[in-house]
Amino acid sequence: MDDEKRFSGKMGEDYDLLRRAYPKYDELHQVLADIIADHASRNNGNAVRAIEIGCGSGITSEYILNSRGDLFLTAIDNEPKMIAQAGLNLKTKLNSGRLTLLQADALEHLGSVRKASVDVVASGFTLHNFMRGYRTSVMKQVFRVIKPGGLFVNADKYSLEGQEMFEELVVQLERFFKAFVPLGKIDLLREWVLHNVADQAPDRVMKERDALEEMEEIGFEDVRIHFRHGLEALVSGKKSSIQN
Questions:
Q1: Cα dihedral sign for 102, 67, 88, 9?
Q2: I need a labelling partner for 81 at 20 to 30 A (CA). Which of 88, 205, 213, 217 fits?
Q3: Using one digit for the tens of pLDDT, what is the confidence trace for 185-227?
Q4: Each residue of 145-191: pLDDT tens digit?
Q5: 208-211 contacts at long range (C-beta below 8 A, 24 or more positions apart)
Q6: Orientation angle between helical segments 208-218 and 132-145, nearest 10 degrees
Q7: Helix (H) or strand (E) holding 122
Q8: Alpha-carbon span 7 to 66, nearest angstrom
Q9: Based on the number of CB atoms within 10 Å of its own CB, is 15 exposed (0-12), middle (13-18) or buried (19 or more)?
């Protein structure tokens, strides 16, 4: 269980301002939605069942839901503040019956889901927040719950190596200053700067090479990067349609 709540302060209250500091944020999420739509088009006309890990304020959830009119999403987050915001932002989607919001621990929820019962598991800017061991356990559960031929797709921070990682981190921190200082959001700026530095801790950092290799070790196939801008990347992998 990962009880750490990294968005209980100003970052959670003003989460949607994150877009100001990530110039490719919406483009990245649109690629995620397009990948889901393309995958779901092969679902033989059946409704698509999806789980989102870490819905936050609902930004990624909306992109996922807009990818297909026949997609049904269960979006989970362990932060009450985030679930409340998502509920307000996605009220129409909730009323349609296509969205279920759950305040839950990611690993506990995935552990309760029936094996090979989900078409898609998606996430946006969440997995990098997990401690490494917990993240590995989550990924193993993701592989367990998706159907043969199912899809995992993640828009997130995948750290690079060495000097390149350091240079991209500096660029990102500068974007936070440009985004939040003119708004007078100094407390918010402080939280995001400390948050981004903490993301690089040895027991938390999600390095691109390590993450992709781990996915393949777990059993994912066709593991690939579809999009990268700075430290952000879009990664996907599939479960083989042929299972022993």
A1: positive
A2: 205
A3: 898 888 888 988 888 899 999 999 999 999 999 999 999 999 9
A4: 999 999 999 999 999 888 888 898 899 899 989 998 999 989 888 88
A5: 208/158, 208/159, 208/160, 208/233, 209/161, 211/158, 211/235
A6: 40
A7: strand 118-124
A8: 26
A9: buried
N-term to C-term CA, the chain: 30
Q: Which two tokens stand for residue 226?
A: 């579809």
Angle at which helices 25-40 and 59-67 cross, to 10°: 30
Q: Catalogue all structural domains in the chain, each as residue range(s) with its CATH number.
A: 10-238 (3.40.50.150)
* 128: CB partners within 8 A, 6+ apart: 156, 157, 158, 159, 199, 204, 205, 206
> Which residue bears the tokens 């393949």?
216
The pTM (predicted TM-score) of the whole model is 0.91
The CA distance from 244 to 241, in Å, is 10
| Segment holding 74, helix H or strand E | strand 71-77
